[in-house]
Design brief:
Elements: E1 4-6, E2 10-13, E3 19-21, E4 25-26, E5 33-35, E6 42-44, E7 49-51, E8 54-56, E9 63-70, E10 80-87, E11 93-95, E12 99-106, E13 111-119, E14 125-130, E15 139-142, E16 145-148, E17 152-160, H1 166-169, E18 179-188, E19 195-204, E20 208-210, E21 214-221, E22 226-234, E23 240-246, E24 251-254, E25 259-262, E26 267-274, E27 280-290, E28 295-305, E29 309-311, E30 327-335, E31 346-349, E32 358-361, E33 364-367, E34 372-379, H2 385-393
Parallel strand pairs: 12-19, 21-28
Antiparallel strand pairs: 1-2, 2-7, 3-6, 4-9, 5-8, 9-10, 11-13, 13-17, 14-16, 14-18, 15-17, 18-19, 20-22, 22-26, 23-25, 23-27, 24-26, 27-28, 29-30, 30-34, 31-33, 32-34
Length: 394
């Protein structure tokens, strides 16, 4: 027959037949004591041993016991239950918070917290903080060396400034969800085991991107306003307050005069409105500033012109008109080009929106430099068939 004798971390086969060791199953719930999964199966030759690695990772000071069941595939031996016991001793130095969460952090901004150590020993102990090499340009603890007096505490200042290179420098410290976890060790004199704690943060970029880098308004009449749409997108994991504060007096950003809050990943549609008062080319820029001091500039260009064609009355208000009656109004279209400029005849075409009981005559024409044309508008409201059918339906 076969018999298993427990040794330090193994089992000895004392029979003359080889034995196939099945998976060793844990028969009690104790997360502090586990087995190395690569050693729980194997083959035991006659008069030889198979070693199983026991992993002990205590989370608190206590006595721990775990039971494991060992079985073989030959069927000649009943399952064997093995008890593993361990006892944890308390270290004299410990960290108050084993995980310091800085939550959401923006690039190039300073974030601070305190690291508090306690010493329960009856003598003073020297300690030293060890930061991973890849994170030393972004994280610092002051002081890095110190002495904790007996039955006392020690406070150090943690400073975290994530630079733009942190995504490359600490690539191995980021999880799939882009959570940065920096493991830090505290070395204590005359103590073999280091005291670990972790600093975690969600590091976010603070960039705003625009749909265009240049706003070209083209030729703009000095008598009219010209509107140009553009969009802004927030690439930060946090909302950002922004405002266009460096804007010339002849330019406005709408809505809300260029001020607002943009949510993470949101794209806002904005409009730049320009009303030039001076003829000629204009080159300028508008600057968007965020609450943390980031500046984003858009270059702008526009040319102020006097329109070649001008109307004498841009707005007409007809008096209330009964069905079947008509009202007339007229205005002039002028060609402002000097008479000395030859070949400067200008053509026009007036389009009346569909469904409006308005006629224009003449609606198409050509005007020579310095000349003007009288245009007459006639308004005669009528009752359409579809309106009658709609009223009957109601």
């Amino acid at each position: 027959g076969s018999k298993f004798t427990e040794k330090t971390k193994g089992y000895t086969q004392e029979g003359d037949m080889p034995v196939q060791l099945n998976e060793i199953v844990k028969s009690s719930h104790n997360p502090d004591i586990t087995l190395n999964t690569s050693t729980i199966r194997g083959f035991i030759s006659p008069f030889s041993s198979a070693f199983v690695e026991v992993l002990y990772n205590p989370r608190q000071v206590s006595h721990h016991t775990a039971y494991f069941t060992v079985t073989t595939s030959d069927g000649y031996m009943d399952p064997v239950t093995v008890a593993v016991t361990a006892r944890t001793i308390d270290l004299p130095v410990y960290v108050k918070n084993t995980e310091i969460q800085l939550k959401y952090c923006m690039l190039n901004r300073l974030y601070q917290d305190s690291v508090i150590l306690y010493n329960t020993a009856t003598s003073a102990l020297r300690i030293k903080f060890e930061i991973p090499y890849s994170a030393r340009d972004h994280l610092d603890i002051l002081p890095q060396n110190g002495v904790i007096q007996a039955n006392s505490s020690f406070s150090a200042q943690l400073k975290f400034i994530p630079l733009s290179s942190i995504f490359c420098d600490c690539q191995d410290l980021f999880s799939e969800s882009q959570l940065l976890s920096i493991p830090i060790k505290v070395k204590v004199a005359d103590q073999t085991r280091c005291i670990p704690f972790t600093v975690s943060a969600n590091v976010s970029d603070t960039n705003l991107s625009f749909s265009t880098d240049e706003l070209n308004f083209g030729c703009c009449s000095i008598y009219e306003s010209v509107q140009l749409p553009f969009s802004v997108t927030n690439h930060c994991l946090l909302p950002q307050i922004f405002g266009f504060i460096s804007v010339p007096d002849f330019v406005s950003i709408q809505p809300n005069d260029g001020f607002g809050t943009i949510l993470p990943g949101e794209t806002l549609e904005l409009n730049a409105v320009i009303h030039l008062k001076i003829l000629g080319a204009h080159e300028f820029s508008v600057t968007c500033t965020t609450e943390i001091g980031r500046n984003f500039s858009l270059t702008c260009s526009a040319t102020g012109v006097i329109p070649h064609l001008d109307v004498s009355h841009p707005i007409f208000r007809f008096a209330p008109t009964a069905l079947g009656d008509i009202r007339r109004a007229s205005f002039y279209i002028c060609n402002n080009t000097p008479k000395t400029d030859i070949n400067q005849d200008k053509s026009y075409h007036i389009i009346v929106p569909y469904g409006i009981d308005l006629t224009v005559s003449p609606s198409i024409g050509t005007i020579s430099p310095g000349q003007r044309v009288r245009v007459q508008m006639t308004f005669g409201p009528t009752l359409r068939k579809e309106e009658v059918e709609r009223r009957e339906f109601l």
